[in-house]
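Bumping with the actual sequence this time:
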Amino acid sequence: MAHDFSSAGTVVTGADASTRPGAGRLPEGPRADFYLIHNPESWEIYERPDGEYEWLPKLKPLYLTPGVNGVRQVKGGFDDAPARLAVTDRGWTVLDRSLGYITKYPCRRGQSAFLTWNTPVAMGRRVVVRHDVEGYAAWRRELVENGTIAAPEPEALDAVLHRLEQTINRGQKAIHIPGVKARIDANEKKKTGAKKAAKRATSRKRAPRKRAAPSA
């Protein structure tokens, strides 16, 4: 079942995002505000610092740009309700912006919205974004642990593993090339670790088998 953890009909003005007023002004125009959304089929294999593997939800931004994705311009901001309704109807979960995953930085002509675990750094006229891999992974892990995002179904993980297996098989023809062999070995290790982690990640309980009624 799809979930929308936001208030229906909300007019978004950016108040649900943290701000960094002391940060230097970025040499670029505003980046669009957004929600993070999750499809129950979207999971990725993450290698932890200790070398173990785990499954984490793969999140996608739903950008709040008037005229795009059903977002409507209204007085004082824009109405995102149609956009959220459209994605939830397709089975996606919309994560509430109050979860703190957006941080805004001052820029030319306003503020720019970034994922909280992305830190923009001005380098002359360019903006370089530094990503906190472990912090973002820990937050996504917590989303599953606290039930904000449902644990994955086994079939969803099987599909990811199947694509990984296809990648490994395609590389077999060039396994004599050192670089290709290294990638295959890394993917084989990833596949083994992911299969082990899949047993921990899936909490789905299978219904008990029905017993045949005794014959008369």
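The tokens above came from a reply further down the thread. The chain has two domains: 11-145, 154-201.
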